[in-house]
Design brief:
This protein has two helices and eleven strands. By secondary structure, it is of the alpha+beta class. It has two domains: 124 residues, Immunoglobulin-like (Sandwich), CATH 2.60.40; 52 residues. The radius of gyration is 35 Å and the shape is elongated.
Length: 198
C-alpha cells in the first residue's frame, strides 16, 4: 500500500518538474548561411527567446568559429555585461558587438572579411537560470568581387549577342520587304497590262 502511494507521489512530482525543465531553454534564431563579398563588413544575426527576464547581469553570449572541415573551435567574441572581443588571433580588431540585450539580439559584425573567414560561426546564449538551448549556427562564405563582374560580363555578352541578332533580323526583314515590294510592283505592272486588254 505504501509502495503504491510512493509511485503516485513520484508521478505527481515528475508531472510538476518535467515541463518546467522543458520550457526553461533559450531558443536561438540565426540564418543558416551568409554570403559576403571580400573586404566588406558583414553582420551575423542571432536573436533569442528566453522564458526568464533578460538583463545585462543574466546574459552571456559566446560566439565561436570553426574553419571549414575542422572541429577546432576558436573564440570570436564573448559578451557579459559588455563586449569582450579577442585581443589575439584571426578576429583581433575584426569583430564588434552589434546586439541589443533589451531586444534579445546577440548579433555581431565581422569587419573587412577575407576568404580566410570562411567557416561555421556558432552563437551560444545563456540567460541564467535558463539553461542553454541549441546553439545557432551560421555558415559564412566569403566570395571575390570577381564573381559579380563575371555576371556583368555574362550580361554584356548576352546583350551583345541580342543586339547582333536584332541587326541581322533587321537586315533580313529589310531585304524581304524590298523583294516583296519589287514583286508587288511586278504584279501591278502585270495587272495594269491585263486591264489594258479590256
Ligand atoms: C580579397 O581577397 C584576397 C585574397 O584572396 C586579398 O588578397 C585581397 O586583398 C582581398 N581584397 C579586398 C578588397 O579585401
Ligand atoms: C571561401 O568560400 C568561397 C565560397 O564558397 C570559395 O569560393 C573560396 O574558395 C573559399 N576560400 C577559402 C580560402 O576557403
Amino acid at each position: 500500500m505504501s509502495n503504491h502511494l510512493y509511485l503516485w507521489l513520484l508521478l505527481l512530482l515528475e508531472g510538476l518538474v518535467l515541463p518546467e525543465i522543458e520550457v526553461s531553454a533559450v531558443e536561438i534564431f540565426t540564418p543558416s548561411e551568409v554570403v559576403a563579398v571580400n573586404g566588406t563588413d558583414v553582420k551575423l544575426s542571432c536573436t533569442f527567446k528566453s522564458t526568464h527576464p533578460v538583463s545585462d547581469q543574466s546574459l552571456i553570449v559566446k560566439w565561436n568559429y570553426r574553419p571549414p572541415n575542422s572541429q577546432r573551435e576558436t573564440s570570436v567574441l564573448y559578451f557579459q555585461e559588455s563586449s569582450h572581443p579577442p585581443d589575439a588571433g584571426l578576429f583581433k580588431n575584426r569583430v564588434v558587438w552589434s546586439g541589443n540585450v533589451a531586444k534579445r539580439d546577440a548579433s555581431i559584425t565581422l569587419l573587412h572579411v577575407s576568404p580566410t573567414f570562411n567557416g561555421t560561426y556558432t552563437c551560444q546564449v545563456t540567460n541564467r537560470p535558463d539553461v542553454q538551448g541549441r546553439d545557432g549556427e551560421i555558415v559564412l562564405k566569403v566570395v571575390q568581387k570577381a564573381s559579380v563582374s563575371e555576371i556583368g560580363m555574362l550580361l554584356a555578352v548576352v546583350g551583345g549577342s541580342c543586339a547582333v541578332i536584332l541587326v541581322i533580323l533587321g537586315i533580313v526583314m529589310g531585304v524581304k520587304m524590298y523583294k516583296k515590294r519589287q514583286e508587288d510592283m511586278d504584279i501591278e505592272e502585270h495587272s495594269i497590262g491585263k486591264t489594258d486588254l479590256y
